[in-house]
Specification:
Elements lengths: L4 H8 L28 E12 L14 E11 L4 E8 L3 E5 L8 E2 L2 E2 L1 E15 L5 E18 L10 E21 L4 E8 L2 E11 L4 E2 L3 E7 L2 E11 L2 E10 L5 E2 L2 H7 L4 E2 L4 E11 L4 E10 L6 E2 L7 E13 L2 E12 L2 E5 L2 E6 L2 E13 L1
Parallel strand pairs: 20-23
Antiparallel strand pairs: 1-2, 1-25, 2-3, 3-7, 4-7, 5-6, 7-8, 8-9, 9-10, 9-11, 10-14, 11-12, 11-13, 14-15, 15-18, 16-17, 18-19, 19-21, 21-22, 22-25, 23-24
């Protein structure tokens, strides 16, 4: 079961490929695996998610839009004890569009829709006092923007409401530590990310009389989180791995000034924290090919949920494969299937209906290079 560093690194790169679909607005899972690679390392990847979220009760065939998100990372071992890195991802987001001919979620040829987009740039510096320990921390730069339109009888007098949340940037931070025994491919890491507070310039428009409210500020606080990653060699050419993630969604709310004044409700909120876990195995078949298989679970962030994302958690299975033409670079691809949890959609304090038999397919492609 003894593994050299290069072999361990090749196997490790197969593990976190396929994209995530998680509670609340969580997307990327905010992995820092690239920063924990040995030596100098760079990677770039893209993940695509194709969900189907439906309600037979409300005659909604599919309200979830396909989306993709890129990621990239570079890590440099500056000295024997100091490493630096830069990670890019899109940690949170949403993209949904209801059918415009459904009277519950559409009106006058227009439909309920939502688009939320974030970008993260995390800068890390790590200190390795010994071969086994790595302590790291750094600032996180984040941008957020969003647009939401509410249409149909589900929203009563708020049908016709639009909100434009203009892009805002803000800073947070992350910190963590890792412990490894390279000879047996054992590595564990604990990473904390802070919440990040945004104040977004906001324009709200109401359908009744097309009243446009003057610009105001809407507070959006993206949640704090903790990731725990673990892997170890379990047999010749074989690794077992696990990831546990906690995200503090239970106090998350988006409360636009004029919508709240008109209805007393939030635009988006969640009632529970998210817990998710992924476990699996990775195996090297020969000097060029390796692969992985995983099972995942996500608790969701409460039920009933907003009509803008009516699912509660998931179970998933995933497969990944990696081709390494040489020791210093690889190409990786993977697929994951999600059984999305049934949920009750709610607007304000009113339950609108049930969304059931939901699922999603995720695909990923990544290229890694050691230099």
């Amino acid at each position: 079961m003894k593994l050299n560093k290069i072999y361990s690194a090749i196997l490790l790169s197969t593990l976190p490929l396929t994209p995530a679909l998680a509670a609340g607005l969580d997307r990327s899972g905010q992995s820092i695996a690239a920063f924990l690679q040995p030596g100098n390392y760079a990677e770039a990847g893209i993940s695509v998610l194709d969900p189907k979220v439906q309600s037979n009760q409300l005659k909604v065939n599919d309200m979830a839009e396909d989306y993709y998100f890129p990621s990239a990372a570079i890590k440099v071992q500056a000295t024997e004890h100091i490493s630096i890195g830069l990670l890019y991802d899109q940690p949170f987001g949403a993209e949904s569009l209801y059918p415009s001919n459904n009277l519950v979620f559409g009106a006058n040829g227009e439909a309920t829709q939502v688009e939320v987009e974030t970008h993260n740039l995390s800068a890390l510096i790590g200190y390795q006092p010994t071969e086994n320990w790595n302590f790291y921390a750094g600032p996180v730069y984040q941008t957020v923007k969003g647009n939401v339109s509410l249409r149909g009888t589900a929203y009563s007098l708020l049908s016709g409401y639009n909100i434009d949340l203009k892009e805002d940037d803000a800073f947070g931070w992350l910190a963590g530590f890792a412990y490894q025994i390279p000879e047996i491919a054992l590595k564990t890491a604990v990473t904390y990310r802070s919440e990040i507070k945004h104040e977004l310039d906001t324009t709200e428009t109401f359908g009744f009389g097309a009243i446009q409210q003057p610009n105001a500020l809407t507070e959006v606080v993206t949640p704090q989180s903790v990731n725990i990653d673990f892997q170890t060699g379990v047999a010749a050419n074989t690794l077992a791995f696990a990831n546990i993630r906690w995200v503090h969604w239970d106090q998350f709310a988006v409360t636009p000034k004029f919508l709240n004044a008109a209805s007393g409700n939030n635009l988006i909120d969640y009632s529970d924290d998210q817990w998710s876990a992924t476990v699996g195995v990775g195996r090297k078949f020969n000097s060029h090919w390796s692969g992985s298989a995983s099972v995942g679970y996500d608790s969701g962030a409460g039920n009933p949920v907003t009509t803008l994302g009516p699912t509660e958690g998931y179970w998933s299975v995933g497969l990944g494969g990696q081709y390494s033409p040489a020791e210093n670079y690889f190409i990786q691809a993977g697929v994951k299937y999600f059984w999305l949890g049934d949920a009750t959609a709610r607007t304000g304090t009113t339950n609108v209906g049930e969304f059931e038999d939901n699922y999603a397919l995720g695909y990923g492609l990544k290229i890694g290079y050691r230099f």
